[in-house]
Write the structure tokens for this entry.
Amino acid sequence: MMTDSLSPFVMYSARGAIAAGLTHVEHQVGGIEQAIVENPGLAFDLAKTLVESVCQRVLSERGIQYGDNDTLPSLFRAVSRSLPFLPPGTSGEAEVRNSLDRTLNGLQTVIQGICELRNRCGFASHGSADSRPVMESVQALLAAQAADAVVGFLYRVHRQDRTPKGEHPPSYEANPEFNGSVDELHGMVRIFDLEFRPSEVLYEMEPESYRVYLTDFQADSDRVESNAVPDEATKTPL
């Protein structure tokens, strides 16, 4: 998109999130749109702040704790672990999951890049003894578009109900065989004098990964059972 007076930059994805309930970031979004032309350095600061605000909001609404001093990349990783990025019907597909992981890694790289640009070129970033390089609107536009894409994607996934009608997300207690298999494979997790079951750690820290591995485990169990049942047509008559 051009950023001249005839075609101003608009953060469509972020504004869609605002319309869906993310109203507290409206001033940040408006500030980025204005800064693209008037103060490109400020756009980097606001882009970082915007993504940070959205990550914190998502974690808060999902009941996940985070620290006041957590960096933006760590906040993004926490959000990535908590969101069901894949539809239930494809969450067990290994290749699909791997492709999504690579995409998320790319988004994390974008987030890290925004942080570094903000630190080196931001208008309101930390003080420096030397003059900072001056960024123009075209570089600020990259940061703004990246932030817009990340914000829109994260909040849309967060708001979307991915549980089909009549189906509930797996609970830890409902899958004792799978939990026992995970514990047997990996052994107890020890931190000082405390011990934790690996299956519980996986369930609490990586709920989406728990669901993926559970799907694989159930599929393998179904295949074993089907192979163990003899075909009626091939039985030898007595």
Summary: Residues 94-121 form the longest helix (28 residues). Confidence is low (pLDDT under 50) at residues 1-6, 161-168. The beta strands are 189-191, 194-196.
